[in-house]
Amino acid sequence: MVLGIMKTVILLLTFAALALCADDFCYKDTQRACSPTSSKLVTGVPNCNAKYGAIDKLQSSLQKYTNELLYRSFDFLLMSTFYGNYIKNRPGFEKLYRTYSDSLWNDGIELIKYIETRGGTMDFSNIPNNILNLENDGSESKPSPKPNWELNEYTSLAKALDLEKELAEDIFKIHLDADSLKPGQHDAEVVHHIEEEFVSKHRDAIRKLSGYTYDLGKLLDTPDASLAVYMFDEFLQNDKY
Amino acid sequence: MKVFGIFVVVCLAFASARLTCEHKTPKIPDDWIDMSSICVKRIRSHVTEELKAAMQYMAMGAHFSKDVVNRPGFAKLFFEAASEEREHAIKLIHYLLMRGQLTSGVSDMIKRNLAPSTIIWSDGASAIRDALQLEASVTKKIRELIKTCEGEPTFNDYHLVDYLTGDFLTEQYEGQRDLAGKLSTLEKLMDSHGALGEFLFDKKLL
Ligand SMILES: [Fe+2]
Ligand SMILES: [Fe+2]
């Protein structure tokens, strides 16, 4: 009698272990959950999740990228803030950087929703080194100089351009991982999502900022650079520019 | 000699090609800038409090979006709350700008320390309970802020105190009432029909 029960338990445990290593056993999970003999042994239906493809491999870099989006949105908010003070008083620049801040914030929320859609989880402590201001020089991480968001008009445009490029290249890296044809790493859906949501958005921001930097550079190279910056800011307030 | 001459000319050319990027900082009278420094400091750190609340709500939104939690109504409520908290932070920043502040020391106002402390909830009710507690703690901090800014022996900041009382506290009390009401309805729904009650309530939030 006791031996019989033990045999059943061992059998069930082996079965459960097998089910856990397999990849498509939601059906068996639900069967087990409904069966009168074993429903108390294994709780829940662990294999009935939204995971497929390479999300487990890509999740960490997606989390890092989400944090990058959120913290960069705060950086742009600070740049915007600086242009809103009474000494700088450049409503055009204030508006421009606020637009980037808002859009990065919303992208961050959307990326969290996306990670969860794919059965992943968000980790807010998984912050990339470039956001923590750590330079990885191979041996160990050390802090780089403190970020400065109180920049003059011309250099602030350059900074914004660099940041947008960094964001674009960082998502390219995740794209490369997801698109690599190595088995277990390939995930066509992540590739598609990145292309759909990020790639062209960054392209447009980069083009716009490089155009602004070019124009302001030309305008500064005139006898009345101070007036030129005033005019440039007026144009920034206009949605057509 | 000739080479040296050319070198000098080139240098001069470069010197004159330098762009004027920094322009003159105008002299503006500053007697209109009257906020007390301790009050400014407190408001600045409250900006961080609002952003921390934003990230905490964000974590709640993330939790309820999980495939194995699947409560889209709760997720929507919390993601919207996250963006609202960010708006509060921006409102405070705008207030400081209006009062002539934030001409310097802007760069270190938001730090990289906003990761939320709680990231998992046992059910919807416990998350709403946490949200209510979070709001109550923010309300308390706003009250302390008010005390600091009106209690200054030399300068009572009537306008700021009025703004914090009329605008921020109103929003806090209304928000708290809303959360408390939601929690009450949810708990009553779940009294004898736990899982079903939460499922239905979630759909009502959509
Ligand atoms: Fe708030
Ligand atoms: Fe709030």
Describe this structure in words.
The complex is a heterodimer of chains A (241) and B (206). Chain A is mainly alpha-helical and 241 residues long. Chain A has two domains: 1-48, no CATH class; 55-237, Up-down Bundle (Ferritin). Chain A has seven helices and two strands, in the order H-H-H-H-E-E-H-H-H. Chain A has helices at 2-21, 26-34, 55-83, 91-117, 153-179, 188-220, 225-236; strands spanning 134-136, 141-143. In chain A, strands 1-2 form a two-stranded antiparallel ribbon. In chain B, 69% of the residues lie in helices and 0% in strands. Chain B has helices at residues 2-17, 37-65, 72-98, 124-150, 158-189, 194-205. The interface between A and B is large, with 48 and 44 residues. One fe (ii) ion binds at residues 53, 85, 135, 138, 175 of chain B.
Q: CATH topology of the largest domain in chain A, what is it called?
A: Ferritin
Mean pLDDT of chain A: 87
Q: Can you write the helix and strand succession of chain A as a string?
A: HHHHEEHHH
Count, helices of chain B: 6
- Alpha carbon gyration radius of chain B: 25 Å
**Most extensive interface:** A-B, 48 and 44 residues
Structural class by SSE content of chain A: mainly alpha
The portion of residues forming beta strands of chain B comes to under 5%
| Strand order within the widest beta sheet of chain A | 1-2
* Known CATH architecture of chain B: Up-down Bundle
Considering the chains and any ligands shown, give keywords for the structure.
heterodimer; A: 241 residues; mainly alpha; Ferritin; two-stranded antiparallel sheet; B: 206 residues; 69% helix; binds fe (ii) ion
